[in-house]
Write a structure and sequence with these properties.
- About 25% of the residues lie in helices and about 40% in strands.
- The protein is elongated, with a radius of gyration of 23 Å.
- The protein has 2 domains: about 55 residues; about 130 residues, Sandwich (Immunoglobulin-like), CATH 2.60.40.
- Helix 1 packs antiparallel against helix 3.
Length: about 190
């Protein structure tokens, strides 16, 4: 095989390797066996009730996270309507960093008419956090408050835009090196 073909093949393999290592799966600070990892909803049953709390985390552009909380009937799996609740995020030191009621400038508890809510949160810090959903009432009937804690909710360490930019830069570098080699006959 000629040197130019070997050079071209090595450049192609380098490009594939660069892209494979620069474009990971979900960019996050995930820990094993955590609730709410990207694409994996978690469900916690509240003792003494017919209620399961389900949390799913989806990430959007520019450090936007959407926490979808579903209040499910544990017998049927259908949404429980008219749930009184609150949603908070706590950091690794158990300090509250976000409160949905306070962010919406509303009193606690909040009211989920349909049994499912999506709570947007703009990520301002990195690390592992805990999402806490506290239920104050079911079908608008007050209960003793119960909380479902979802530890290790992953929050991205840096925006996916940076990963894409780095991948594009690495690809451009590999192509430029390959062209330089061709022009100089090396």
């Amino acid at each position: 095989m000629s040197d130019s073909r070997i050079s071209n093949l090595s450049s192609v393999f380098l490009l594939i390797f660069a892209l494979a290592t620069m474009i990971p799966g979900p960019v996050s600070a995930q820990a094993p066996n955590c609730y709410g990892n990207i694409g994996t909803p978690a469900i916690i049953h509240l003792n003494g009730t017919s209620l399961d709390v389900k949390l799913e985390v989806k990430y959007g552009k520019e450090q936007q996270a959407n926490f979808t909380v579903s209040f499910l009937n544990s017998q049927t799996g259908s949404n429980h309507k008219d749930v009184l609740y609150d949603f908070t995020l706590k950091d690794e030191t158990d300090k509250e960093i976000f409160n949905a009621a306070a962010a919406a400038n509303l009193p606690t508890p909040l009211h989920s008419v349909s049994g499912e809510v999506t709570i947007p949160y703009t990520i301002t810090d990195k690390g592992l956090h805990t999402a806490v959903v506290t239920v104050y009432g079911i079908h608008l009937i007050p209960i003793n408050p119960q909380s479902a804690s979802f530890p290790c909710v992953p929050l991205p360490e840096f925006p996916i835009v940076i990963v894409g930019t780095l991948a594009a830069a690495m690809s451009a570098l590999v192509i430029a090196i390959n062209r330089y080699k061709k022009l100089n006959g090396t």
